[in-house]
Amino acid sequence: IENYVLRGLSKDLLKNYKGAIEDFSRALELNSKNANIYFHRGFSHMGLRADENAKKDFNKAIALNPEYADAYFFRGVVNLRLKNDVEARKDLLKAMELGNHEATAYIAKIN
Asked: Which residues neighbour 3 within 8 Å (Cβ) at sequence distance 6 or greater?
C-alpha cells in the first residue's frame, strides 16, 4: 500500500493526476478504510477538474475521519467551484473549527 501511496503522491506533485489517481485507487483496493488515501485521490481529481469525483472522495475521507480538517477545506473549495455556496460555507466553517486557517480567505469569497 505504502508504495502505491508514495508513487501517487510523487505523480501528483508532477501534475500527473491521472497516474496518481490510478495509484491511489490501487492502494484503496488493498485498504479501503484509509481516509488519507481518499483525501489524496480527491486532491488529484481536483487537479483534473473532476470536481464531482473529488467531492465523493472527500466525503469518504470525512466519513472515515470526521475530524479531517483538510478534507472539509478541499470539499468546501470543490463546492465553491460547483457553485454550491451553502455547502461550501458549512465545509469551510467546519475546516476552520478543526484548525484549518486557509478557510478564512475562502469564506470571505462567499460573503
From this structure: none
40 class by beta-carbon count within 10 Å (0-12 exposed, 13-18 middle, 19+ buried): buried
Q: Residues 6 or more apart from 65 whose CB is under 8 A from it?
A: 35, 71
Give per-residue pLDDT as tens, 52-110: 999 999 999 999 999 999 999 999 999 999 999 999 999 999 999 999 999 999 998 78
SS3 31: coil
| Ranges of H-type helices in the chain | 2-13, 17-30, 35-47, 51-64, 69-81, 85-97, 103-110
